[in-house]
Amino acid sequence: MSGGGPAAGAAPRVLAAVVVPPHLSVSGGARAAEQLSAALRPRCEVTVASMMNGAGSAAAVHRLPVRSWLPPLLPWSRLPPRYRTLFYRSDIPRLLAPGAFDLVHLHNPMPALELERIARACRARGLPYVISTHGFNEVANGGTVYGFGRAGRLLWQQLVVAPVARAVRRAAGIFALSPADADIVAAMGFAGPVTPVPNGVALPGPADAAADRQALARLGIPAGSAPGTLTALFLANHTPNKGLPQLLEAFGRIERPFLLIIGGERRGGIGYDAAIAACRPGQRIVVTGRLSDAEVAAAFRRADLFVFPTLADTLPLVVLEAMAHGLPVVASRVGGIPYQLGGDCGLLVPPGDAGALAAAVEALAADPGRRRQAGAAARRRVADRFTWARAAEQALQGYGEALQGRPRPAAALLPTRPATLPATLPTPLSTTLPAGPADRRAH
């Protein structure tokens, strides 16, 4: 049965299907999906169906409740969450009632088998679907960055990469978060229209100093630091791809005074306590646990620098949030991060290189003026390029093309090379940074 498409002149009716493990307390992909859906509301009819049911989101969107479960009669409690994640199912296919929607917008690729199942249900009902590339860098590189052995890499290929690729190949359109994603979807066999739709972020409003002090006090973070003490912030799920061991190793090499705020909930197998115990006089590491929106904003305002040593990421929303708060960024040269930072918003380092990470942090710690310049450039870049209003306009264009079946001309795609490093990058780093991932492999 065909979805039929919208009547002439009518706004398209879109189901934003957010495929994400329901046990997560926060998901950048899910937050981005809901923020984009909220930005689209004035222009089209968007309904959100999320496997997280809006947890951790304050977006004003119309929702349908989603039920998620693991297949019965299997000993799921014996498996760590990272393995259970692969097998969650949902009742999103049931929501695809005939005539209810013109188009389905799939966000986030994990669990991949569920993404494929929803895509298959769309095809069975004659509904076109588009896919945003949240998490595609992690899909493409997960077999390496998650530390799997040969059997694990084979399972990753069969249970993650292959289902995502099958869904991608039959999509009516792909919404690429960054230029690097075009190579990934091409390697998956997609030959249709690719529309650039990056994440956006809202510029923060005025700070409430008293509320910030209260939020920081709840987290055990002092409201101020001694002169010469650098405050660095990391914020993400503590999953293996985020590079937390490299972060702790890098700060273990730094001799100057610092406060390192590690936002997010602790995860087994990471040496937090050993790193805390190894701190020198004047150094401190605080692991916050789960944060409220107010606590996140207070942490951004408290920091001098945002550090994000990820091993695999697509276009991390948290990097844009840090930039919106005027923070310079030290991050790994992976996925769309070079595109986010441009040439003057911070420093890029090779993924997994704790020495280069420490050197980049030291370089910015030693130069407050450079930090201020990079932070101001970061805020300007977000305001110019990464707004939800701009993303919504690009998504609407992609919806129209998907519904009409018109391919995008190749010249309309984003350039595939990432931005270059700033000319003022310190010599020791500039001589050790290799070409970015987008230059030498898919994504």
UniProtKB/TrEMBL annotation:
Residue ranges of the region described as Disordered: 419-443
SUPFAM superfamilies per UniProt: UDP-Glycosyltransferase/glycogen phosphorylase (SSF53756)
Domain spans labelled Glycosyltransferase subfamily 4-like N-terminal: 26-201
Principal EC category: transferase
GO MF annotations, alphabetized: glycosyltransferase activity
Keywords: Glycosyltransferase, Transferase
Enzyme Commission identifier(s): 2.4.-.-
Biased composition (Low complexity): 419-435
The protein's name in its UniProt record: Glycosyltransferase
Source organism per UniProt: Paeniroseomonas aquatica
